[in-house]
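Translate structure to sequence.
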């Protein structure tokens, strides 16, 4: 009796573990509920929050948001650093279908904001790893050096 209970316990535990890890290895797919055409329109909004929310929503749509690449490239030139960063983030999530944005992203490697530069590097890696410059990017290197000097590492 004890042996059969142990056996059932281990079978139940094994099933529970297998079920709990079943979805862990899968990367989340695109959010098909995002209205890409409405978000493309929102990218042109004079309202900062509407533009930035559109970037986030387009990022959720992943490669399905490829039609928004042109609008996102325009936002890479925006005066607000957070808008530039979120546009670059959306391009990262679109991935290789955002290849047309590579030249505009590479121009942003000289941005004055480190958060923008860091996002641009991640975006370039996602779109085409060969597009990331081999040399160090000064602001990012300075950021790492500063972190080491204050004992963050």
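Result:
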């Amino acid at each position: 009796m004890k042996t059969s209970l142990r056996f059932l316990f281990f079978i139940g535990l094994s099933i529970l573990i297998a079920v709990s890890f079943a979805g862990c290895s899968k990367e989340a797919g695109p959010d098909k509920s995002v209205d890409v055409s409405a978000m493309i329109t929102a990218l042109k909004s004079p309202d900062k929050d509407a533009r930035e929310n559109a970037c986030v929503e387009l990022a959720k749509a992943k490669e399905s948001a490829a039609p928004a690449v042109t609008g996102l490239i325009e936002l890479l030139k925006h005066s607000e650093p957070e808008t530039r960063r979120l546009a670059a983030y959306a391009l990262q999530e679109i991935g290789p279908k955002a290849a047309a944005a590579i030249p505009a992203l590479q121009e942003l490697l000289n941005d004055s904001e480190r958060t923008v530069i860091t996002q641009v590097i991640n975006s370039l890696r996602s779109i085409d790893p060969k597009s990331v410059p081999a040399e160090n990017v000064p602001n990012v290197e300075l950021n790492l050096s500063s972190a080491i000097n204050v004992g963050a590492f």
